[in-house]
Specification:
The protein is mostly helical. It has twelve helices and four strands.
C-alpha cells in the first residue's frame, strides 16, 4: 500500500506530513516510557524492549518483501502496524513502521518521498492505533491466556488493513489528483484489502504466537496477563488447609532471574535474513492491492517517477548484478541490515535519554542523604 508521488496533491501531502511529524514526536516521547519499562504496559520484560525494537523493524522490512497472492492478478504484503504494536508497544510500533517506510522510500524507491507523510499516516499510524486499540479491548474480554493473545492479534491485524484502505480513500477524497468516483475507490480498496488483511492476520498471529511460546515476557501485549505465583503449604506437613495456606507471591515472580534475549534476537535476525535474502525471490510478482486498484480505476493517471528511481537498490535489486536471485537477495540483506542499524540506533538513544532523565533527580538528591 505504498503510495507513490503524484497520487495525492501537495496541500494534503503537506498536511499529512505535518500530522505524521506530530505523531512521530508523540511516539518518541511515548517510546521512551515503553523502552524504559515505565507507564502503562511497563514492568517485567519492558527493559528488554530496546534491543528488540530495531529487530522488529528489520523483520517487518523483510516480511514486506514477501508479496502473497490474494486474487487473480493481485498480491498483498504485510503492513506491520499490528505486529509491531503488540510486540513492542504502540508508540514504539509507530516508530518501527516509520523507520521501515523511510528506508524503503530513500533506498529502494518504494513509496514516494513527497508521499512519505501519507504513507506514515496510513501504514504506521492508522494501522497501529486501530490494531492496538482493538487488541486491548479483546484482551480484556477474552480469557486471560496465551491463546487469547494470539486470537486478539489475529483479529486486530485483520481489521487494521481495511482500516488503512479506508484511510487512504479518505485522503484521496480530500486530495486525489485524478477524477475518479470515490465510491469506486472505496469499494475496490476495501474489497481487496479485506483479503490482504487475512494474510496480515495470519503472519501477525503466527509471529506473536511463536514469541509467546518461548518468551512471553518479551511480548508487550502479553504483560500483566500472567497469574501471580502462589505458594501452597502441603497438607502432608500437618499445616493449615491448602485453601487457607495459599499465599500470592508476586514478589517471588518479580525476583526471577533475568534471561538473556540474545537467542531470540539471533533467531529473529536469522528469520529476517532468510525471508529477505532467500524466500523473497519466490514472492508474487503481481501488483499489490493499491497498485492494482490504481491501475484499474485510473488513480495513477498523474503518478510521477520516484526521485530515487536511479538508486543502486531501486526496486529491491542491486544495480549491475544481472542474476535476479542474487540481486534481489543481496538487496534484501542490505535492507535488513540498514533498517536494523537505523532502528536500533534510534531506540538505544531513546532508552539512554530516558535513563539519563530518570537518573538526574536521584543524583540531585544524593548529597542530601546522610550515611
Amino acid at each position: 500500500m505504498h503510495v507513490p508521488d503524484g497520487f495525492i496533491n501537495a496541500p494534503v501531502s503537506v498536511a499529512t506530513g505535518a500530522l505524521a511529524a506530530a505523531a512521530v514526536a508523540v511516539s518518541l516521547r511515548g517510546a521512551r516510557r515503553e523502552l524504559a519499562g515505565t507507564g502503562q504496559g511497563g514492568g517485567t520484560g519492558a527493559e528488554r524492549t530496546a534491543p528488540l525494537a530495531g529487530l522488529v523493524a528489520a523483520f517487518i522490512f523483510a516480511v514486506q518483501m514477501l508479496n502473497f497472492p490474494v486474487a487473480a492478478g493481485t498480491s498483498g504484503h504485510l503492513l506491520g502496524g499490528a505486529l509491531a504494536a503488540i510486540l513492542v508497544g504502540p508508540y514504539t510500533g509507530v516508530l518501527c513502521v516509520s523507520v521501515v517506510l523511510l528506508m524503503q522510500g530513500v533506498l529502494f524507491a518504494d513509496g514516494g518521498l513527497t508521499a512519505l507523510g501519507v504513507n506514515i499516516t496510513d501504514m504506521a499510524i492508522v494501522t497501529t492505533v486501530v490494531a492496538y486499540g482493538l487488541f486491548r479491548v479483546l484482551v480484556k474480554v477474552l480469557p486471560r491466556s496465551r491463546r487469547s493473545i494470539t486470537v486478539a492479534s489475529f483479529v486486530s491485524a485483520l481489521v487494521s488493513v481495511p482500516a488503512a484502505a479506508v484511510a487512504f480513500t479518505a485522503l484521496y477524497a480530500l486530495g486525489g489528483t485524478a477524477d475518479v468516483p470515490i465510491g469506486k475507490v472505496f469499494t475496490a480498496m476495501v474489497g481487496v484489502h479485506v483479503l490482504i488483511g487475512i494474510g496480515e492476520a495470519a503472519i501477525t498471529a503466527l509471529t506473536v504466537g511463536a514469541v509467546i511460546a518461548v518468551r512471553p515476557d518479551l511480548v508487550h501485549g502479553a504483560r500483566g496477563l500472567t497469574a501471580p505465583l502462589e505458594l501452597r503449604t502441603s497438607p502432608l506437613t500437618g499445616a493449615a488447609p491448602a485453601a487457607a495456606a495459599t499465599t500470592p507471591a508476586p514478589a517471588v515472580a518479580a525476583a526471577a532471574p533475568r534471561r538473556s534475549v540474545r537467542r531470540v534476537w539471533l533467531a529473529g535476525l536469522a528469520a529476517a535474513l532468510v525471508c529477505a535474502g532467500g524466500i523473497s525471490y519466490y514472492a508474487s510478482a503481481s501488483p499489490d492491492g493499491l497498485e492494482k486498484v490504481a491501475h484499474d480505476q485510473g488513480i495513477d493517471a498523474k503518478a510521477r517517477d520516484h526521485a530515487t528511481k536511479d538508486s543502486p537498490l531501486a526496486d529491491y535489486s542491486v544495480k549491475d548484478i544481472t542474476d535476479p536471485r542474487l540481486s534481489g537477495g543481496l538487496a534484501g540483506v542490505i535492507g535488513v541490515g540498514a533498517t536494523l542499524a537505523v532502528g536500533t540506533g534510534v531506540f538505544v538513544v531513546l532508552r539512554r535519554r530516558r535513563n539519563a532523565a530518570d537518573a538526574r533527580p536521584s543524583a540531585a538528591g544524593a548529597p542530601a542523604e546522610r550515611a
